[in-house]
């Protein structure tokens, strides 16, 4: 009972932190890609490295978001919450391939 109450308090902070890290990764990588594109004077012919870096950052971000979803599984109390959580987790795993 004490552990359950502790987890109900701490898990939202953990999952929010992991979500925030994922968002920060996306924002920083998008800014880096934009700066590289401007530095290349919007030359669209040699942008493969920019695209690859952005995709790698998105996959890493999805891993943090998935970790946040996994942490939220501790607090699931109904089957409806489980279905929503499982759907989001499956979608994120599929998108990372």
Layout: helices, strands, pairs:
Blueprint: H1 2-39, H2 48-72, H3 79-95
Helix pairs in contact: 1-2, 2-3
N/C terminus separation: 39 Å
Strand composition percent: under 5%
- Radius of gyration over all CA atoms, rounded: 18 Å
Structural class: mainly alpha
> Which regions are unreliable across 5 or more consecutive residues at pLDDT < 50?
none
Give the helices and strands as they follow along the chain. HHH
Strand elements, count: 0
Q: So what's the overall shape?
A: elongated
Note the total helix count.
Answer: 3
Largest sheet: none
Helix content: over 70%
Q: Average pLDDT across residues?
A: 85
Structural notes for this entry:
- With 97 residues, this protein is an all-alpha fold.
- The chain has helices at 2-39, 48-72, 79-95.
- It is elongated and about 60 Å long.
- The mean pLDDT is 85.
């Amino acid at each position: 009972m004490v552990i359950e109450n502790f987890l109900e308090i701490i898990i939202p902070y953990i999952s929010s932190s992991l979500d925030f890290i994922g968002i920060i990764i996306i924002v920083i990588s998008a800014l880096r890609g934009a700066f590289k594109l401007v530095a290349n004077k919007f030359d669209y012919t040699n942008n493969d490295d920019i695209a690859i870096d952005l995709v790698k950052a998105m996959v890493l971000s999805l891993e943090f978001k998935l970790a946040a979803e996994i942490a939220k599984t501790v607090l699931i109390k109904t089957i409806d919450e489980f279905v929503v959580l499982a759907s989001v987790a499956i979608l994120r795993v599929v998108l990372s391939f």
